[in-house]
Amino acid sequence: ERSLPNVKYEYFDFHGVCKNAHFDKVNEVVRKLQPINDHFRFFAQNETGAVTMMQRGCVRTNCLDCLDRTNVFQCKVAAQMLEIILRHLGLELTTVLGEDILAAMDAPSKRQHALVVNLKHVWADCSDMISKQYTGTESTISDVTRGNGAGIMGLFNQKLKSISRFYVGNFEDQYKQESLDYLLGEHTAFINIFSDEIERQLKFYERDFCIFSDLAVFISTWNMMGNPYTSNVDFDKLIELEEAAPPDIFVFAFQEVVDLNAKNVLVAGNEEAVKKWTTAINAYLNSRFSADGLDYSFIIQESLVGILTIVFAKTSLKHRIRKLSVDTVKTGIANTLGNKGGVVIKFCFDDTSIALLNVHLESGQHKVQDRLLNIADIHSKAFQSEGTGQRREERVETLDYKFLFGDFNFRINLPYEEVLGRLNGILAANNNMREQQRMLRELLEYEQMLLCRKNPEFPHLARYSEGEITFLPTYKYDAYSNVYDTSKKQRVPSWVDRIMVWAPEGELLKQRFYNRRELLDSDHRPVTTYYVIEVKKIDNVRKQELTRQLYEKGKLVVSEEILEEDGRENGITISPVNAAKEERDRKKWEDIELLDMSDIPPPQQKNMVDQLKDIKF
Q1: Has this prediction a pTM greater than 0.70?
Q2: Residues 59-67: contacts with CB within 8 Å, 24+ apart?
């Protein structure tokens, strides 16, 4: 109301006031609107077409995720306006009805005036039609609007409609929504060829309408073997920055923060483990970096049974983080259990979108295909679930930066004894680093994940880049020791714990370090990395002008027919664009000369402090 002086806001607790179906209690609020509606008046013309009255305002009712409650209220407002309209026409409705129209609408149906009955039925029919479009069923409380009350049959009808609405919302509505998204061009799988090409062209001119800055991101991943957090965790070792500056964002990824037994997977929660890790990390960060004049704020955390991701950012930068969203994807037995799967967090830093994918994949020396399917499922299913109150969001693949990390469980395709022998040889050459690295590279030739990058059926891994592995396998150790697995299972030592990034083509990306840390709290060694990525802040005025010019210059390109008849009588299909046509289109776009932006002031490249002062949210 402060920012909109011509708007009056009235809060009304419908459930609280109208408890136990006492819908007549809305009358008190509607009567308060009488002088306002009198002032708003209505539009009217005489028989010659001359305007005799203009409407000055309207009453708008909003209710979160509900059509029915607003309709009960609107029906009473409509009745009050009808009374005002008839009064201007010389008919005093109160005299005809013997009481004001709000009271008349709540009177027993047997003594209601025909005008009131018709008004209520017209309004209820209208609400039912709208409700069918919106929810798939009639309004759950249209019987109240019609005047049939909330008796036994009314309550029965209400429950029946609620059940139908639940069924439609969970089993049918997604197809309707999907159809609407296709028609509006907003479906996540919809490819608008023209807009897609415009976006590609805009990419060439980003330096003309964006301000760029660096963002430093620290990531750690650590499988905790189901061990609870203890104060013995050496955060100094875990957060070894190797002379790099304190990062802007810390990402802590864990797997198996609780034991993956049947109780924890099916019933028990992980709240205690999540709280302990979050509290401990927060305390450590703000203790360690306070001497540098820095403090870090908790941004978000998300978990799936034993998988946990926690994000912190410099307090001075947290206002630049927006559009936070989380999702989890289960890949356990039949994709129904969360003992394996992924936790995905996405957000925008300024106008750069970032995804954090923490995964724990299928275990077992020979489960390579299952692990590849896990990765594909996590990428394809994240943020794509639909249901009541939930819509699909943009796919992970469409975001600017994707960081993929966790316990991938990929192994080395060599026998246990041979791998141990090679590792002992590497350790024995501790005075010759070059020889050690040569021997490591030879061993990595048998590493499953690196081999899978060459598999065209599972392209996700090939799109990610990973720093050079210069450290020993991180798994599996005897608990709390530096000795690789001596149990009867004799698991092959492997680099199961990894961190990688999928960055936009041509983007600047620096990796300060990629290493394991020597902590003995688990049968895994944690792995950490430090990336410096480039993020952008868009000058929307310049971008809009560029977009307008590109659309104008690109009309000739898209004027060629994209949709071709497929010979069927009923409809058309989208025909594949052949290679020759793609080449012709590419050349046409390349012929578009550099846009004249002389009339638009260029974005000022400032230092980081000045940039922060100018950014408004």
Answers
A1: no
A2: 59/33, 63/14, 65/389, 67/127, 67/130, 67/131, 67/134, 67/135, 67/139
